[in-house]
Design brief:
homodimer; alpha+beta; 60s Ribosomal Protein L30, Chain: A; CofE-like fold; 3-stranded antiparallel sheet; 25% strand; globular
Chain lengths: 247, 247
């Protein structure tokens, strides 16, 4: 019988800059070969010192103009623009950009909740795939052969609510390509590529409270998607702008 | 320790029109109170006779024109248009519409794989929330207090690969609204509404092969999202067009 178990890792301390997340995780849970370790972006960013104090940011002219239109804080808009390569939408109080990593999301993924100081915001990791590779190395160095996913909550067009997606990964096959394979009736499957890494991020989110008390979740039973190499990372999940009808 | 288990239900027969899915499921797995039963759209559509033979469809002028532009079968395009209220994009071989249900997806959710006859295609259920309520009734009538999700694979803008989402549900809270609640540091959470039903659909997909040999998956450990009433259904997941920046 095929099955999957998701287990929340409890008891992680407040993560500070410089923390070794891999070490913190292996100290708290016995990992098995084939596990996927799903980690909230927020703790990865904190461990990497990717936080900023808004009071230290000087907003430029463009940020001040956009902030006035959107009713947002000018320093926050300045940071969003610094983290972005392109503004896709700026209306109705919403700022959707493409980040330097190539992710399309609100506010360049900058988050103002779950950070200790009121003036502090949290940016995405500079290179989330590199973060995943580093954390994977820390864990694999201790024995277990596992995959690592770094996830964040993104809103979606057309559908309400946020869903967790993968912004960085290592040791996991992010896409499962069924094109050319046949269905149960022998008919060739059409255009079926499954975003396994995003589904894994979503599954992990279900055992995690949004108060971020459980930033790390272990997925057990997905061995077939765990790879011995780091693999292509979450950049493989980016749809090229030239193939995207909704920009 | 918080955890979630997803269990694939094996041994379901080929589902034919008129089948009672609830009955077929309870015969094959011992359900517990608080389980969520996630069912692939395809078997629900088949049980409801929502299949069509392309050779029986007479394409109209608009369908023939679009089919020529997109390189698609005219009869298939006719069916897509019949199932849709609005065409959002028709280019590069891709037809994105809003269905009568209010879902934005490719080909109005019509699927040509995993159907026994080569000429047959499968439409979405007419009212997937009603389908979920009916299947829930069939199961709850036998004892266990469970939620039902009907799921389908949708593509996404900006990201490659399809992810499973919920197109119908009953007995489950589709959105978990954290607005106004506080994070671990006492700061109010901003705009955080989690699409729990979509994350549940994604989690279930991970234990299901795309050859559709496992159309039913049980999620155990999400009792807190299971409700005694049918609830709002998946229509609650539709973002109103007036609030959508990507149409």
């Amino acid at each position: 019988m095929s099955s999957l178990t998701a287990i929340g890792v409890e008891g992680l301390p407040e993560v500070e800059a410089g923390a070794s997340l891999g070490q913190l995780i292996v100290e708290r849970i016995e990992l098995e070969d084939g596990d996927i370790v799903v980690i909230s972006q927020k703790v990865v960013s904190k461990a990497e010192g990717q936080t900023r104090r808004l009071s230290s940011v000087i907003p430029g002219a463009e940020a001040r103009k956009l902030a006035a239109v959107l009713g947002k804080e000018p320093a926050l808009v300045e940071l969003i623009l610094e983290e972005s390569s392109e503004v896709l939408r700026a209306e109705r109080g919403v700022l959707i950009t493409e980040t330097h990593h190539g992710f399309v999301c609100a506010n360049a993924g900058i988050d103002t909740s779950n950070v200790p100081e009121n003036d502090t915001v949290c940016l995405l990791p500079e290179d989330p795939d590199a973060s995943a590779r580093r954390i994977r190395d820390e864990i694999v160095g201790q024995g277990p052969d596992i995959g690592v996913v770094i996830s964040d909550s993104f809103g979606r067009p057309w559908r309400l609510g946020q869903a967790e997606v993968t912004i960085g990964c290592a040791g996991i096959q992010p896409l499962d390509d069924w094109r050319g394979r046949r269905d149960a009736h022998g008919r060739e499957l059409e255009a079926t590529v499954i975003a396994v890494a995003d589904e894994a991020a979503a599954a992990a989110d279900l055992v995690r409270g949004k108060d971020s008390s459980i930033p790390v979740v272990i997925l057990r039973g997905l061995d077939r998607f765990v790879t011995s190499e780091d693999g292509p990372g979450a950049v493989a999940l980016r749809r090229p702008a030239s193939e995207d009808l909704f920009r």
